[in-house]
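Entry 0007
Protein: Glycoamylase-like domain-containing protein
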Amino acid sequence: MKKLIVSLIACLGLLTGNAQKTDHQILEELLHNTVKFYQMLRADNGLYHDYVSTHGETNRGSAANIGMGLVAQCVASEMGWTTKAEEEIIETLQSVLGHNDQGIRLDRTAQNCFIHFFDINTGKAIGEDWSPIDTDLMISGALFAKRYFNHNEQLGAYVDELYNLVDQAQFIGDWTKGQIALKMTEEGPAVNSYTLPYNEYMVVAWLAKNQAKKKNAPANKLWDKWYGNPDGLPTATYASKSGEAYHVMTDHAVSKEFTSNFTFMFNYLFVNEFTTSEKYQEAMRQAALADRAWWNDRDDLKPMGLQPYEWGTTAGIGLREHDGALHEGYTVDRICRMEHIGTDRDRNKGKNVALSAMAGYSPVLPDLVRKDLIAMYRDPRGLGKMALPAREGISDGGDYILWKYSYSDLNWRPSKVEGVDYACMLLGLAALPELLGVEFFQEYNDFFNPDKPQYKRAR
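Output (structure tokens):
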């Protein structure tokens, strides 16, 4: 009885607190707390941890998180929440490149492909995942920062050094098939494993295209054949129970399975031609509506309380099946056809709801995403609401973000938040018209346009 009373009091406090905040205050608070989250990932040497944990820190860093962290620095600066972004970005780049007095340098191959995971204190490799996509997410974040802080010559010089260090051509396989290397060897050459369009490796294709000096270079041919016009990319179709058909770009051309939602958000973040293309924006909208329809079609979950504003499916920590039982672990969740639910082709057996994925679709569906995010924040069950750990100078422990929960076990709470996967929330909140708007990303991911940025936030 005592526990029930305490729970009811907490719920009443949550409702009262929510009622006192306007929608705008909630959205700005969520963005501010998202920026705080990325500051928590940042180590004193400028490198970024792989995740924030409720069980203490880890010594594992992530190259991809460096890229996302640098974008978060730009967002924080634009919102007026920091005056130290330039200084901290320079420190990060110095640690990546080895230009510091601490002997720190991020490990890379003989041909300068960076490691995905590394020791946060030294930059030394953890494992052997010499990763083209994580290298290029890091480089893209650096290019974003260079364009935002275009007046800072030292910062720009470090970014140029990093960009020119990596020969993107090494990542291109058979351009006629759209191949991009998944992994490199420490000695340099690619492991014989490639991905096919469409997925987040469009970021790699974009950097390779813009680095290629000859029109007939494989990188240019790959881009022109596969990404110059998205009409030719393979799609998987989701037919909703209401009769709508949504066509979602995928790299599963044969099986027609769906891709995970983060692929659209990463490309929106860093590929200017994606960000500004009406066709790619419509493709992203189709993916969002398919995901929302999939959750709304889940009649099996409605007796458990599933609401129309609950949707979002993407990678990151979640409940996953192993040896016939559900355990917490990393999972790349995606939707599937209704007839595949519960079968081997069910790609979200944990029934994990990722609010970061829902948020990440705000660039193409701002009104819907805003409404559903606010509804989730105000939902008295508190699902997906996660308190950031207390961290001196960043948070007192009372700051909340929206993350993940599971309809397989509504009592489950994630033990951590991965920075690269949570980046969908960073994009989604910042891109809302009342915060920074899509213009912020359209301007500052235009890496290869020498014109001075013209973006000005409405205040």
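Curator remark: The chain has two domains: 42-129+141-166, 229-447. The CA atoms of residues 296 and 306 lie 8 Å apart.
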